[in-house]
Every structure is written in structure tokens, then in C-alpha cells.
Design a protein that fits this description.
Length: 169
Amino acid sequence: MKGRRLSWLFLFFSMTIILMGVSGQSEAGKNNFIGTYFTIGDEDGIPTPVIVQIGKDGTYTTVFGIQNTTLAGIVFTDDVGTWKRTGKTEIAAKTCSISSLPPTESSPGAVVSNCIADHVITFSNNFNEINVTISGKCYAPDVNPVDPGDAQVINEFSGSFQGKRLSIP
């Protein structure tokens, strides 16, 4: 009977540990990655400032400084996605974004593509500096980039950014 109780306790605690880890995020050291970083780099050769926000809940967002300009007539949105720890000083993120034509006096604007991107973020040992590499693909406006199937890729992009953590003195 005692062995049976121990088996049930072992099973209970094993399930608890498994369920607590479902998100894929390791709590040990996870807070080191959390924060806001100001980076400058390039995306496809265009100098670009980018604010990177890494949330404790697994959210990952970027705010691109070029989003309100019209490079080749296209306006870019921010990237929104999720991240997970991949190493002692590295995380990986996957994001979605939308590219659109800006509104004009004669047009309300239009979505031109839905994009998905992979980010690799490497941190300095003290987590105050980051290096971000990004590569992604864009699809037609009616294609979900999370599950594009055999849809044609209409654009590919890549870039890298370096920056520092925003901190309060």
C-alpha cells in the first residue's frame, strides 16, 4: 500500500512538473533576457533603428524606425511574435508582420503582403548588449504566413541589428 501511494505521489509531481513547463520557457535564467533594447543595424542594406521588447510571458515585439517611411512605396508594420530560450545567452523568436501601401488622397491604402520572420538574438554575458539577426518571407495578402502551404513567396528579407538594453539609472 505504501509503495502504491509513493507511485501516485511520483505520478502527481511528475505531471505537475510537465504541465508547468508546457510553454517551453525555462524559468532558470529567463529573467536575464527580459527587457527593452534599442538597436541600430540594417535590413537589406537600409540603416534602421529598431526597438526590441522581450516579455516575460514569451511575447516578442519589434518597432522599426522605418515603418513611417515609404521605401519603394511600402509601409512596414511592427513585428509581433513569441520567443524561447535556445542557449545560455541566446533566444529565438518567430514574428508576423504586415506590409501595406500608405493611404493617399485618392486611395485608402492596401495590404500588399503578410510576412513571417525568424529572429536569433544573442546576448552579451551581462545581458546588456544584443545582436539580432533576422530573415523572413512575405506572402500575398490572402495568405496566412503561419501556414502558407504551397503559396508563392513574393519577397524575402534579412538583416542584423546591434544594440543595448534600456535601463533606469
